[in-house]
Write a structure and sequence with these properties.
308 residues; 58% helix; RNase_Y/CdgJ; HDOD; HDOD domain-containing protein
């Protein structure tokens, strides 16, 4: 297997780039290179966790219920603790904290959100990505959670032609940036380098910075992982196209809703360091979804919590 350090040492163009000299804005220096060969050389892609596969099968069960979901989640103590933590967060405002997963589902999260949280938490667990930074695990997770909440609020106002299945929305928001987490898992040096580029070039869009720094986009990495894991087609479409406001393929309503929520979060503390899309593309996207600016602002206000 080709190692990251070996490949960098053999590539003069890459060798002159590091976290110390990558401090200028893009355009002042040449792109460092392309990591596609590094990605292809990896033979340690994490398999889909068994509990994630079980939850996916459960999601397709017409008899799925809160009791059944709680029974699966409670097989995993770590997952149980994480679910209770989110259910008891300030956003949901429970006066009496939930003490069981079933209680959390019924009184706080709701079935769709609880299932999405369980799926995302289980799927992301095997990816050993650094926690810190604009695209670190902590920021990606919090961004995804807020994006799912914002998408849920926006979806309440979508016209009939732009509706998307409500059960898909939270999971789409939570998993859209799994490509960054895969990068951190497989190529930690490239991950740190890209993280630094993003922090130094926050006025640019993620796809532009990705292509400059890596030779491909994090959306391609996410799509690759979801194809290997055989995740649902709608989630694959979101992972690959959530930075494309002009997307017209299958599952367009869900993809575009994710894209809009991403862009709106650029104006909040939950942004991922760079822009989701060009700012000029936001208004046409809002109109395409049959929404207006006032509705978007109201939805943003609804998800703000004391934790912000």
């Amino acid at each position: 297997m080709i190692s990251e350090s070996t490949t960098i040492s053999l590539t003069p163009r890459l060798a002159q780039w590091n976290l110390n000299n990558a401090t200028t804005r893009l355009g002042a220096q040449l792109p460092p290179g392309d990591i596609r060969d590094l990605i292809r050389a990896h033979d340690d892609l994490p398999p889909l966790p068994e509990i994630t596969a079980r939850l996916l099968r459960f999601r397709d069960d017409p008899n799925a219920s809160a009791v059944g979901l709680a029974a699966i989640v409670e097989l995993d103590p770590l997952l149980t603790g994480q679910m209770l933590r989110w259910a008891n967060s300030a956003y949901y405002g429970l006066r009496i904290p939930a003490e069981s997963v079933r209680d959390a589902i019924v009184r706080s999260l709701g079935f769709s959100t609880a299932l999405a949280l369980a799926l995302a938490l289980a799927a992301l667990r095997p990816l050993k990505t650094p926690n810190q930074g604009s695209i670190g695990r902590d920021r990606v997770w919090r961004h995804g959670l807020q994006c799912g909440l914002l998408m849920t609020e926006l979806a309440k106002h979508l016209p009939a032609g732009a509706q998307t299945p409500s059960e898909q929305i939270p999971l789409a928001g939570l998993t859209q940036n799994i490509g960054y987490l895969l990068l951190g898992h497989l190529l930690p040096d490239s991950f740190r380098f890209l993280n630094h580029l993003i922090e130094q070039n926050g006025s640019l869009t993620h796809p532009v910075i990705d292509r400059f720094g890596l030779g491909l986009e994090h959306t391609q990495l996410g799509q690759w992982l979801f194809e290997v894991w055989e995740m649902p087609p709608a989630l694959r479409a979101v992972v690959r196209h959530h930075h494309n406001p002009g997307y017209e393929g299958e599952h367009a309503p869900l993809v575009l809703l994710t894209c809009l929520a991403d862009s709106l979060l650029d104006e909040t503390p939950w942004r991922l360091g760079a822009c989701a899309i060009e700012k000029a593309a936001r208004s046409p996207l809002i109109a395409r979804l049959g929404l207006d600016q006032e509705t978007c602002e109201m939805a943003l206000e609804k998800i703000r919590t004391p934790e912000e």
